[in-house]
Amino acid sequence: MKKALLLLSCALLFSFSVQAAGDAAAGKAKSARCASCHGVDGKISIPTYPNLAGQNEVYLDNSMHAYKKGERTGGMAVVMVGYVRSLSDQDIADLAAYYASLGEK
Known about the structure:
The chain is mostly helical.
């Protein structure tokens, strides 16, 4: 049982690291339409929206995919769906990489 849990944990960790393979430079070029709510460089301009700068890359990637699939419905989900609907998986990965990189010093 312990071996099975260990193997499952390793498989999940591996899949998360593979999933987050974005290009931060490409993400920066794609981020202009995000700035109206999430601010320039991922720092909010409107208090009802979250900062994206420095967020975990995998979290951002998973969140955008969840909005796109309709799995996130709270808060401003309707607005987010409109933005992420047209994004490819690579666009999402690039944006996640870009915003995650803003927290690096």
